[in-house]
Write a structure and sequence with these properties.
CATH class of the largest domain in chain A: Mainly Beta
Structural class of chain B: mainly beta
Radius of gyration of chain A: 24 Å
CATH architecture of chain B: Beta Barrel
Helix content of chain A: 10-25%
Oligomer: heterodimer
Largest sheet of chain A: 8 strands, mixed
Strand order of the largest sheet of chain B: 3-4-5-6-7-8-9-10-12-13-14-15
Number of helices of chain A: 8
Largest sheet of chain B: 12 strands, antiparallel, barrel
Distance between the termini of chain A: 38 Å
Largest interface: A-B, 49 and 34 residues
Strand order of the largest sheet of chain A: 2-3-1-4-7-12-11-9
GO molecular function, one term (chain A): iron-sulfur cluster binding
CATH topology of chain B: Porin
Organism (chain A): Desulfopila aestuarii DSM 18488
Number of helices of chain B: 2
Keywords (chain A): Copper, Iron, Iron-sulfur, Metal-binding, Oxidoreductase
Pfam families (chain A): Cu-oxidase, Cu-oxidase_2, Cu-oxidase_3
Strand content of chain B: over 45%
Shape of chain A: globular
Subunit structure (chain A): Heterodimer of a large and a small subunit.
Strand content of chain A: 25-35%
Order of helices and strands of chain B: HEEEEEEEEEEEEEEHE
Distance between the termini of chain B: 28 Å
Chain lengths: 618, 236
């Protein structure tokens, strides 16, 4: 029998010398506290993360009372914890995870981003039957990868109510970067409301949680600034399309409390460092619905891995992390002071907060929330040519109007042809290179965007007329904010592209929705009405997403890597979850090397019921 | 009773329409909403009235059973009251077709109508409900309601509203004349303490036209009423 250690450790960092063992026995596991006694109290309230190591793991799913807001609520937990324990595996090991369901309802655990046999993937109705109350399911598979991942329930809305945790897989080979400390930073969103009630409210009033809508005051201010006729011109398209440029997040800080490692902003998570150390932060977005914009004021972050896979290091001030994505960054605090780990929700309705500090008694100033982001015509999938994003919002009305009146089938290319030569080539709104889509791997798709007949049905309230590859666009709310913001264009695999075959075919998938009725779909067809997608075993194919909605969708393909085309065919980064920006298109390559049935969906919890496909690899 | 039976059929359709599962999840659960859009005290030159406008629906994304009732209560008795029971089917991304029965229960005699309407969100964010009503003895009516929500702040919302009623035929027993019979305009400002609960203040102006106005004059009623309203709006 393999030894199972359970460490109650100070953030999972390698153990400091002064070691204090409290010696709490829990389920035969040893609880060790790698911190000095005088820091015990502070750490117990804010900073410890239980870590399970080894190859055999016993996990129990149960209801537990929790209190994140001042109100007691029932959470669905793994081993009684929110988040669940950090699971620490080793590349090359065969792991066994016995998951026992003590909930009153069916449950499941999905190992997010882990390449494994279909039966072990943990999606009820696709990979297995689910775990009934009282039952134990034994997951067992070989670990072929390393890096930062996570796990979560794939049943009902249990993920919203606390069933998620981090996975760290230590590599066999030494890491290509050094570090002295290692912390998981698991971001999540907690609501005291039942998720069923949240979903019902969205169906009854889709803007229920949006308290940042456009008001009469905005209108008056714009008329003062721009005059009546220009304001009218700018507003009219949104008004005609019945779209709101303030429609960023369906569920907001109105009901959510944002957590770092289970700590609300009031208490905050704390991680220790000693001046001069290199600290590895493993960011995981385990939220149900929230994108975060993460930064540590006065501390540059070197991004070394995305979705668990090493990338060529890139230094940034800020990055956006979509639901289910992970980023590993290294920071080197040079001063004896506290730093604020600041993760504001994309819609600026709140933030999660932590502190990196040499001393728990120090605090760091919490930045103010950024201004509320406003969607541009570009986010609506309108033509952009070579203008800067903010110019576009104001000055491209004639272009937008042209795009509106152009026949849908020809609009994708008509714009470029009608532009002066200097504008037709090369650049997107953020100064990014337009991917030519010449078919070469890494370059994205040049295929014409075609809206299928089902996209003109009841499930779809709008279509992107001229979606662009916006691989270098940091996204709404992060453009030109004065900080160096990570974009997908910055992501290059540290290693050569694993599969250099050209794609044999391309599948264009349109992300569609009807916001008012709160219905989400792919190609205008919701999961319940859709046929499975067929991948041929062994083929290399290109998936191109066209986002016809006004929202960011984090698209997650189970079982196979998403080789994201960021412009460098030699170093294509591998991801498991990919943000498709509103009104944009984006491509990745897939090597269909995993037989069986796999889930493929938007990872926003209240979107995925409709915006979902089963993939059959035969 | 006959009308109740007619309602059961769409109800069955609504309750049993597609159960769709993503993994093990139902993307389109059976939901219901009850919306007391207006419950208000109206005061002006004539006697004060209590007016209500209450809607409810039960169903799924695309198919719903709708109930709508409107009326007023004056000096201990109901002045006007109507009830509609409609099967509602999405016909466009922003529009529902609503078909069913409308009963004008007060004033008596009771009038029954076949109702056919469209309800939805028009460009520029106007909420529209336009319906045609076909009654017994060749009677017909058309009613158009339009509403706009102007956000002064995130919770303080100004709502102008306009309702026009046209009749195809004189109906002396209910004091309704042919042609444009009634125009009702309102301006209400509500404060959403929660999304589901908002007190409001406002004004309401009702004017009767043509033969309808003549009938009102004969009965000694006002043809032009300006009233102050105070009420609550709530939903579940």
């Amino acid at each position: 029998m393999n030894a199972l250690e359970m460490f109650l450790k100070y953030g999972g960092a390698s153990l400091p010398r002064r070691q204090f063992v409290k010696g709490i026995a829990a389920g035969g596991a040893l609880l060790g506290l790698g911190i000095a006694p005088d820091r015990l109290l502070a750490s117990l309230t804010s900073s410890w993360q239980p870590v399970l190591r080894g190859t055999r793991f016993d996990l129990t799913l149960s209801s537990k009372r929790v209190n994140f807001t001042g109100q007691e609520r029932l959470a669905t937990t793994v081993n009684g914890l929110v988040p669940g324990p950090v699971l620490r595996w080793r590349e090359g090991d065969r792991v066994i995870l016995n998951v026992t369901n003590h909930l009153a309802e069916q449950s499941s655990i999905h190992w997010h981003g882990i390449i494994l046999p279909m039966e072990m993937d943990g999606v009820p109705g696709i990979s297995f039957k689910g775990i009934e109350p009282g039952e134990t399911f034994r997951y067992t598979f070989d670990v072929h990868q390393s890096g930062t991942y996570w796990y979560h329930s794939h049943s009902g809305f249990q993920e919203q109510t606390g069933m998620y945790g981090a996975i760290i897989i230590d590599p066999r080979q030494p890491e290509p970067f050094g570090y002295d400390r290692d912390y998981v930073i698991l971001l999540s969103d907690w609501s005291d409301e039942d998720p069923e009630s949240i979903y019902a409210k969205l169906k009854k009033l889709s803007h229920y949680y949006n308290f940042a809508e456009r008001t009469a005051g905005d209108l008056i201010r714009e008329i003062k600034e721009k005059g009546v006729s220009q304001t009218w011109a700018e507003r009219s398209m949104w008004n005609r399309m019945r779209m709101s440029d303030r429609d960023l997040s369906d569920v907001t800080g109105y009901t959510y409390t944002f957590l770092i490692n289970g700590q609300p902003p009031a208490s905050g998570w704390t991680g220790l460092f000693t001046k001069g150390e290199r600290v590895r932060l493993r960011f995981i977005n385990g939220s149900a619905m929230t994108f975060f914009d993460v930064r540590i004021p006065d501390l540059a972050m070197q991004v070394v891995a995305a979705d668990g896979q090493n990338v060529a290091p890139v230094t940034v001030d800020e990055f956006r992390i979509g639901v289910a994505e992970t980023y590993d960054v290294i920071v080197e605090p040079k001063d004896d002071r506290a730093y604020c780990v600041y993760a504001q929700a994309l819609d600026r309705s709140g933030y999660a907060r932590g502190v990196l500090t040499p001393d728990p008694s120090l605090t760091a100033e919490v930045p103010a929330l950024d201004p509320y982001p406003i969607l541009s015509h570009m986010d609506m999938g309108m033509a952009m040519g070579g203008m800067a994003a903010d110019e576009l919002e104001i000055e491209q009305l004639t272009m937008d109007d042209m795009a509106m009146t152009a026949p849908p089938a020809s609009s994708a290319h008509a714009m470029h042809h009608s532009m002066p030569a200097g504008h037709s080539m090369g650049h997107t709104a953020s100064g990014a290179t337009v991917l030519k889509g010449n078919g070469a791997i890494g370059q994205g798709s040049g295929t014409k965007v075609i809206h299928g007949p089902a996209e003109f049905g009841l499930h779809v309230d709008g279509r992107a007329e001229d979606p662009q590859h916006r691989i270098d666009d940091p996204g709404v709310g992060l453009r030109n904010n004065g900080r160096r913001v990570l974009t997908y264009g910055d992501l290059r695999n540290l290693h050569p592209t694993p599969d250099t075959r050209e794609p044999e075919r391309e599948v264009q998938l349109h992300l569609t929705g009807n916001m008012g009725r709160y219905m989400w779909s792919i190609n205008g067809i919701k999961y319940g009405d859709a046929d499975p997608l067929n991948f041929k075993y062994g083929e290399r194919l290109r998936i191109t997403f066209v986002n016809d909605t006004m929202m960011n969708h984090p698209m997650h393909l189970h079982g196979m890597w998403s080789d994201l085309e960021t412009g460098d065919g030699q170093h294509i980064p591998r991801k498991h979850t990919v943000i498709v920006q509103p009104g944009a298109k984006l491509s990745y390559l897939v090597s269909a090397d995993a037989r069986g049935d796999w889930a493929f969906h938007c990872h926003l919890l209240y979107h995925m019921l409709g915006m979902f496909r089963k993939v059959e690899v035969r | 009773m006959k009308h109740i039976m007619h309602l059961l059929f769409p109800l069955v359709i609504v309750a049993h329409s597609s159960m769709s599962l993503a993994g093990d999840m139902d993307d389109d659960p059976l939901l219901g909403k009850v919306m007391l859009d207006q419950l208000e005290l109206r005061t002006g030159d004539s006697d004060a009235t209590v007016n209500w406008s209450l809607d409810g629906w039960l169903g799924r994304d695309l198919d719903k059973l709708w109930l709508k009732t409107k009326g007023d209560y004056e000096r201990g008795s109901i002045g006007e009251a109507n009830l509609q029971a409609l099967y509602s089917r999405a016909i466009a991304p922003f529009w529902d077709l609503q078909v069913g029965w409308r009963g004008d229960l007060r004033p008596e005699p009771v009038r029954n109508w076949l109702a056919v309407g469209v309800k939805g969100l028009a460009p520029y964010f106007f909420d529209l409900d336009a319906a045609l009503f076909l009654g017994e003895s060749g009677r017909s009516q058309a009613r158009i309601q339009a509403e706009y929500e102007l956000l002064l702040t995130q919770r303080l919302i100004l709502v102008p509203e306009l309702e026009l009623t046209l009749s195809g035929k004189d109906d002396p027993e209910t004091a309704t004349g042919s042609g444009l019979s009634t125009v009702e305009a309102g301006l209400r400002i509500r404060y959403e303490i929660r999304r589901e609960f908002a007190p409001y203040l406002g004004v309401s102006w009702t004017r009767l036209y043509g033969q309808t106005a003549d009938y009102a004059v004969e009965e000694g009623d006002e043809t032009d009423q300006f009233q102050i309203v105070v009420g609550i709006r709530c939903w579940l």
